[in-house]
Amino acid sequence: MNLLQSLLSDNNASALNSAASGLGLGNQQTQTLIESLVPILARGLQRNSASGNGLEAIARALDSGMHDRYLADPATLASGTAFEDGKRILGHLLGGKDVSRNVAAHAANQTGIDYSIVKKFLPVLAAATMGALSQQNRAAPGKLTGQLPAAGAGGTGNPLSAFLDADHDGSIADDLLDLAGKFLR
User: Which residues form the domain of 112?
Assistant: First the structure.
């Protein structure tokens, strides 16, 4: 299951819909935003995991951060704690506030959802994204180590690769390009 599918699965979508309803978003708007924003978060994950000890840092964050609680309890995902944690996650994934603002502005333009709402939802989605990765990591402990496969290389059994390899061809490069293409339409 890839990252987008995981976030849109019944239980996870329910938690995200519940948190988003506090921002005035309906279920369809929430799904539209998730579909719009996840490709960018996935690219940030890929970029971070490919740099230096990035994959190990992500694995440590998943092991110690208890991010899966955000999807297990919708009230937690809607909390200020999740929002603040999500802002820190965005800093790691996107590199800074200006990039986050640009992503939110693009998604608002693309979806027609008010920028201020998208800006508030983005950290929630970042926390939920780490929650989805944490769920997968707990289901397959110890597999989120080593390097992601290079483009065209076979899979390593690493949950992050599995999340990002939507077509299960062993390469995440084409899937990230497909996701980015959907985002930029």
Answer: 3-184
